[in-house]
């Protein structure tokens, strides 16, 4: 079994560029033209920088003379910025009862509107106890009331459905 070289992620640099000819761009961004990869590498070493393959699929591949360490640092910074701007959608859960009081309902609605405003999904769980299971229509009315009040800001991702002793509905921001 032959020993495999570790595969590197990212563009090829210096001696890793194994093509006969390359199109060279110097450290100032000037197009030099097509030359042998060996000659391009020597030019890069003369100015104390690295030869980096920018466009490997071009014919011939495009290489640029630059500082590879600095290039890697810039790429890392860009990746971190992108990660920072990314919004992670969370699933927030609100629990209600079939015979919920108006004030309690108002508090739960305020919470749901806040969660939706932040871009999170809301899972509304309506729990039945004891004989309330016989009156599932009351629970469905509560969930319908929630759905109609939040209709302009949300879309129903999962319609109300019964799981054991609770009804579950998932709302997502539009």
Automatic annotation (TrEMBL):
Matches recorded under InterPro entries: T_IF-3_C_sf, T_IF-3_N_sf, Translation_initiation_fac3_CS, Translation_initiation_fac_3, Translation_initiation_fac_3_C, Translation_initiation_fac_3_N
Top-level taxon of the source organism: Bacteria
Could you give a single Gene Ontology term from the biological process aspect? ribosome disassembly
Q: What is its main location?
A: cytoplasm
Q: Which SUPFAM superfamilies match?
A: Translation initiation factor IF3, C-terminal domain, Translation initiation factor IF3, N-terminal domain
Signal peptide range: none
Gene Ontology molecular functions: ribosome binding; translation initiation factor activity
Q: Which GO terms describe its cellular component?
A: cytosol; membrane
Coiled-coil boundaries: none
Print the keywords alphabetically.
Answer: Cytoplasm, Initiation factor, Protein biosynthesis
Q: Does the keyword Cytoplasm apply?
A: yes
Q: Subcellular location, in the record's words? A: Cytoplasm
Q: Among its keywords, does the record have Nuclease?
A: no
Q: Which residues form the Translation initiation factor 3 N-terminal domain?
A: 13-82
The Translation initiation factor 3 C-terminal domain, residue ranges: 89-174
Q: Provide the function of this protein.
A: IF-3 binds to the 30S ribosomal subunit and shifts the equilibrium between 70S ribosomes and their 50S and 30S subunits in favor of the free subunits, thus enhancing the availability of 30S subunits on which protein synthesis initiation begins.
Question: What family classification does the UniProt entry report for this protein?
Answer: Belongs to the IF-3 family.
* NCBIfam families to which the protein is assigned, alphabetical: infC
| Subunit structure of this chain's protein | Monomer.
* UniProt-recorded name of the protein: Translation initiation factor IF-3
* Gene transcribed to yield this protein: infC
């Amino acid at each position: 079994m032959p020993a495999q070289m570790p595969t590197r992620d990212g563009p090829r640099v210096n001696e890793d560029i194994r093509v006969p000819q390359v199109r060279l761009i110097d450290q100032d961004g000037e197009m030099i033209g097509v030359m042998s990869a060996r000659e391009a590498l020597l030019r890069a070493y003369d100015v104390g920088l690295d030869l980096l393959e920018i466009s490997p699929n071009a014919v011939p591949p495009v290489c640029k003379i630059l500082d590879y360490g600095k290039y890697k640092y810039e790429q890392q910074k860009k990746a971190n910025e992108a990660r920072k701007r990314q919004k992670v959608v969370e699933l927030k859960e609100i629990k209600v009862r079939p015979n919920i009081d108006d004030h309690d309902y108002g508090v739960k609605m305020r919470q749901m509107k806040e969660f939706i405003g932040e871009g999170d999904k809301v899972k509304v769980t309506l729990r039945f106890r004891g004989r309330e299971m016989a009156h599932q229509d009351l629970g469905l009315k509560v969930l319908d009331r929630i759905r109609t009040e939040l209709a302009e800001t949300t879309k129903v991702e999962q319609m109300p459905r019964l799981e054991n002793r609770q009804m579950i509905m998932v709302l997502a921001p539009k």
